[in-house]
């Protein structure tokens, strides 16, 4: 399932790289927990831009209500309105079998670095506690059948999903106008979809949640729960536009609830409609000027519009608020990136805080789609990678690769495409891609047939669905901003083809290096890197991404493409 890519310097789909970036470590072997993880990142180098739902900061905590044996009207709305019974996102059949998991953020709500004293935080908690309301889930009729509803709910809470579904179906048949029975049926179908890993069953649950709202005399709190869960499950299935319609309905029914407007803004971001998302967050901030969730998202959108300086206070104040949904790696990344571009050394303070909170593997390694436990170092030798045959082949045939590349460097043919991801401070940088996400560009390879034939022998490169193989030309006067790639699952090889004697260099983490003609440099582009081209003539290199050598064969087969 892939949300439609939002193309702009920054998009909610996510990508923090000048050469591609995103981060979420996990241990080899687990099923991947990412929702919209199979997002395609078409550019060679991006800046964690896209808003991908699987990393979307949740506006409400997804917490299940207390496991009582009967239906209670006294649970916490703040918890339940987000997702009443949480489903682990990797259990439905559309989720790829992989080994990537999001970084688990610790609770730093009392951390002074976030700009709040402990006293202020405690006051906030006290005020929020006062504002909590007891939701009403039963109408007058449902109160008369509460014992029957409790019995069915008890089965569901004990994990007897099939029995619970049969019980709620019987109640719906007997009492077709009962909102709570219908909602219980939807929840049971929802649970069963998770157990069966069935999207078909999940669609039934979505339909049933929608039916709840159409019944007469439905308590408003039950409407909120049903529609919010319906929207969440639609997003899980990749039905972003359907989810948007559901969220619009929520906002129309409850116009004074800014949390629903915030969710609607995310819905727009997920389909790439930043313009309407921006309007939504402007409306929220006009009603609630201190809403941290709206601030970070509004700052995110401003940065996508390349309004770098303007985005900083919104991102900063939103993160400092500590509001639910703000403690997300993307916002730390974009605030740090914006500060770097403004020449503000405070960028690394925010990167450090993002690292402390578990969003980044380190201050320097800030990718957002990671497999935990992989060896991490900025620079690699061929022997360390284990791909010595590939490196030998590239270095032995570098003139062949160079000559085919030079033959297609004709601007009239438009084979080299400009980098358009807002990664350059200045200059001219273009690429000619042969493989993208493990897919061969047949037309491109017709122009450089010997080079492509050479590479076919090395599946660690051609089969790397989290990388590219391409020529890269950079002209004098070019500076590429510091950036990080999207994943720690690949290493990047640079083969020097045409290298000026001086003036060209690359920094990865804290070490600078230069290219040599006929020699391969290998680095991990999930670490921050930066490029300068101050020579008298162009620089031409050949880029080959390979799987991280410690990934298993199964991981290489199942990790979603980036």
Largest sheet: 8 strands, antiparallel
Overall mean pLDDT score? 82
Taking pLDDT < 50 over at least 5 consecutive residues as the criterion, the unreliable ranges are 1-11, 13-48, 53-70, 72-122
- Which structural category fits the helices and strands? alpha+beta
Number of strands: 13
Per the principal axes of the C-alpha atoms, what is the gross shape? elongated
Helix content: 40-55%
Alpha carbon gyration radius: 26 Å
How many helices in DSSP terms?
22
- Strand proportion, as a percent range, falls in 5-15%
Distance between the ends? 13 Å
Topology summary:
Blueprint: H1 77-80, H2 118-131, H3 140-144, H4 146-157, H5 161-174, H6 179-196, H7 199-214, H8 220-236, H9 240-253, H10 258-270, H11 274-287, H12 292-304, H13 308-321, H14 329-341, H15 347-356, E1 379-380, H16 382-385, H17 388-396, H18 398-407, E2 417-418, E3 424-426, E4 429-436, E5 439-440, H19 442-447, H20 449-455, H21 459-462, E6 468-474, E7 478-483, E8 490-498, E9 504-508, E10 511-513, E11 520-523, E12 529-533, E13 539-547, H22 553-558
């Amino acid at each position: 399932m892939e949300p439609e890519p939002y193309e702009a310097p920054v998009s909610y789909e996510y990508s923090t790289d000048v050469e591609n970036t995103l981060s979420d470590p996990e241990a080899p072997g687990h099923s991947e927990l990412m929702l919209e993880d199979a997002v395609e990142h078409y550019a060679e180098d991006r800046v964690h831009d896209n808003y991908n739902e699987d990393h979307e900061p949740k506006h409400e905590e997804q917490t299940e209500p207390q496991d009582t044996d009967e239906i209670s009207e006294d649970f916490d709305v703040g918890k339940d309105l987000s997702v009443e019974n949480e489903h682990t996102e990797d259990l439905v059949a559309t989720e790829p079998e992989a080994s990537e998991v999001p970084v688990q953020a610790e609770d730093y709500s009392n951390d002074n670095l976030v700009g709040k004293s402990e006293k202020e935080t405690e006051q906030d908690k006290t005020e929020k506690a006062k504002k909590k309301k007891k939701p009403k889930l039963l109408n007058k009729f449902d109160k008369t059948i509460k014992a029957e509803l409790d019995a069915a709910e008890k089965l569901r809470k004990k994990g007897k999903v099939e029995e619970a579904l049969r019980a709620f179906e019987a109640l719906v048949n007997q009492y077709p106008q009962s909102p709570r029975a219908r909602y219980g049926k939807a929840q049971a179908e929802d649970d069963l979809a998770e157990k069966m890993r069935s999207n078909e069953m999940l669609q039934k649950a979505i339909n049933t949640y929608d039916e709840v709202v159409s019944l007469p005399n439905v308590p408003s709190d039950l409407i909120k729960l049903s529609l919010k869960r319906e929207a969440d499950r639609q997003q899980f299935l990749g039905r972003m536009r359907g989810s948007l319609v559901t969220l619009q309905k929520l906002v129309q029914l409850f116009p004074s609830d800014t949390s629903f407007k915030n969710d609607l803004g995310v819905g727009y971001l997920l389909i790439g409609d930043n313009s309407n998302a921006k309007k939504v967050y402007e409306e929220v901030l006009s009603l609630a000027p201190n809403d941290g969730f709206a601030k970070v998202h509004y700052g995110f959108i401003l940065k996508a519009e390349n309004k770098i300086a303007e985005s900083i206070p919104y991102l900063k104040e939103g993160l400092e608020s500590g509001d639910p949904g703000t403690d997300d790696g993307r916002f730390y990344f974009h605030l740090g990136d914006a500060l770097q571009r403004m020449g503000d050394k405070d960028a690394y303070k925010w990167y450090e805080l993002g690292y402390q909170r578990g969003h980044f593997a380190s201050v320097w390694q800030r990718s957002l789609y990671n497999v935990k436990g992989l060896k991490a170092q900025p620079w690699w030798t061929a022997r360390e990678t284990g791909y010595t045959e590939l490196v030998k082949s590239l270095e032995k045939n570098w003139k062949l690769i160079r000559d085919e590349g030079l033959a297609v460097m004709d601007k009239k043919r438009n084979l080299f495409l400009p980098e358009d991801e807002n990664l350059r401070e200045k200059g001219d940088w273009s690429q000619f891609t042969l493989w993208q996400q493990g897919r061969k560009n047949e037309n491109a390879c017709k122009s450089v047939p010997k080079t492509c034939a050479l590479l076919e022998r090395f599946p660690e490169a051609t089969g790397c669905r989290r990388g590219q193989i391409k020529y890269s030309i950079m002209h004098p006067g070019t500076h590429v901003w510091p950036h990080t790639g999207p994943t720690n699952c690949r290493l990047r090889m640079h083969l020097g083809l045409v290298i000026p004697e001086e003036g060209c260099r690359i920094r990865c983490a804290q070490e600078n290096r230069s290219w040599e003609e006929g020699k391969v440099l290998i680095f991990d582009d999930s670490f921050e890197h930066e490029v300068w081209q101050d020579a008298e003539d162009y620089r031409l290199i050949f880029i080959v991404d390979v799987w991280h050598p410690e990934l298993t064969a199964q991981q290489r087969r199942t990790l979603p493409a980036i």
